[in-house]
Amino acid sequence: MDIIEIILLALIQGLTEFLPISSSAHLILPSQLFGWTDQGLSFDVAVHVGSLLAVMIYFREEVGRMFMAWLGSFSASGRASGNFDGKLAWWILFATIPAGLFGYFGKDYIEEYSRSILVIAATTVLFGVLLGFADIKAKQNVSLEKLGFKGAMMIGLAQAIAIIPGTSRSGITMTMGLMLGLSRDNAARFSFLLSIPAIAMAGSYLTYKAISDSEPLVWGDIGIGALLSFISAYACIHFFLILINKLGMMPFVIYRLLLGAGLLAFAFS
Fold first, then answer.
1. pLDDT 10s digits, 54-106
2. Quick check: 96 and 232 in contact, CB under 8 A?
3. Which of 60, 75, 94, 151 sits 20 to 30 Å CA-CA off 192?
4. Which residues, other chains included, contact 75 with Cβ-Cβ below 8 Å and sequence gap of 6+?
5. Residue 266: C-alpha distances to residues 28, 117, 118 (Å)
6. What angle do CA 260, 265, 268 make, to 5 degrees?
7. pLDDT at residue 151 above 60?
């Protein structure tokens, strides 16, 4: 890859991982539209690591409290305290299981049949419409504490669907969160926290594949990719949480509809 491709792909990963517009779709599209060569597994690992570090550092206080409360939940006194941070940690861990199972058993099928522009266009439009519907119709009056284990698992099941390119992991989890009554801010925060084990799993899988394939490492590309992905992802999370209550989801819905229409036109041209 040349430096322009490295910069653009790293920025795309960082910006789209946490916006409800599908990072996988945007990473697939450059090769489909412009004939760029595949960026390679090691570069994929680098940009995932950058995104993971961004969300963990941004939510470092919440992650720290959850981790300590989760450790405490193994003791009798910790369980008796009913600490919400400990419950939230368990909810996120269990809610990640569906995505892990879907990814393990369905990834080969998805890789072979679902990475086309037509599929990306259809899922971009379909799940964009669902996001808009949820944003307009949802009551948005349920706190994270009242979400409950059942609600967390429903969001986890929704996340599993994001294995299909164009769905958007953050988009589908925020959509389900809004449908369950979470505020935009809480739906986004839960989605971002839920992304931590999901991105870690994806990065671990890509690392395993890269090692298995004995892919040569280009450390300069990896370093630039990880750094730019981290910076853009951190900035994306920060400004998204500031603007979401003012703008709502409609700018992203409109973007998805326009992108999907453009992709459909390209696919049938």
1. 999 999 999 999 999 999 988 866 665 668 999 999 999 999 999 999 988 88
2. no
3. 75
4. none
5. 15, 8, 9
6. 120
7. yes
Q: Which residue has the tokens 């999907």?
A: 260
Q: What is the rounded distance in angstroms from the CA atom of residue 236 to the CA atom of residue 251?
A: 15
Q: Between the CA atoms of 179, 183, 184 and 189, what dihedral angle is there, to the nearest 10 degrees?
A: -100
Candidates 59, 16, 53, 52; CA nearest to 189 is 59
Question: What is the model's pLDDT at position 90?
Answer: 96
Domain range for 133: 3-267
In this prediction, what percent of the chain has a pLDDT beyond 90?
A: 54
Dihedral sign of CA atoms 197, 245, 155, 165 in order: negative
Angle of helix 184-212 relative to helix 41-58, nearest 10 degrees, comes to: 150
pLDDT, tens digit (0-9, with 9 covering 90-100), for 168-199: 999 999 999 999 999 999 999 999 999 999 99
CA geometry: angle 73, 74, 75, nearest 5 deg: 90
User: Which residue is it, tokens 């570090």?
Assistant: 53
Predicted model pTM: 0.90
Q: In angstroms, how far is the first alpha carbon of the chain from the final one? A: 28
Helix-helix angle 184-212:144-161, to 10 degrees: 40
